[in-house]
Every structure is written in C-alpha cells, then in structure tokens.
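To the team - zinc ion complex, inputs and output below.
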Amino acid sequence: MPFRHYYYCESCDGTWLVEAEVAVEGDCPFCAARDVFPYRSDEPARLADDAARIARRLAAALRKAVAKPAPVPAESRRLKRAASR
Ligand SMILES: [Zn+2]
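Output:
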C-alpha cells in the first residue's frame, strides 16, 4: 500500500495529494512550479487502521438500525386506528 503524500505549492497556494511508495518532489499541477516537496506523508499502516475502524463503526451502526426499527409515533398510531373504524 503506497504512502499518501500531501503537497502544498507556495507559488499558487495549491494543494494536492499523491499516492506513492516514496516521497518525491513533484510539479504543481496548477501552476507547473517545479520541485515541490510534500509537507506531510501518511503511513499506509495508519490509513489501513483508520479504514478498518470506520468500517467497524459503520457495520455497528447498520446492525443497530436493523435491530431497532424507528418507533411509530403514538399519534400516528391513534390516527390509523381512528381511520379503520
Ligand atoms: Zn502552484
């Protein structure tokens, strides 16, 4: 899994993201400034951890949503009973 490198161009205030195994200086895609270094690099292990945690949280939220259907408000239940009479 490649590292994620964040670039910031001082010439035009542009920011962009590159996924690569190693940090290399890049050319600004906005103003073509050369030799811009990443100001930050994320490790692939941490990204994987984040993804797993988000997936677990999503799965838990979905399970809860399935197990507990939204309660029907008492008023709408009364209205339905009145209508069927
Ligand atoms: Zn630029």
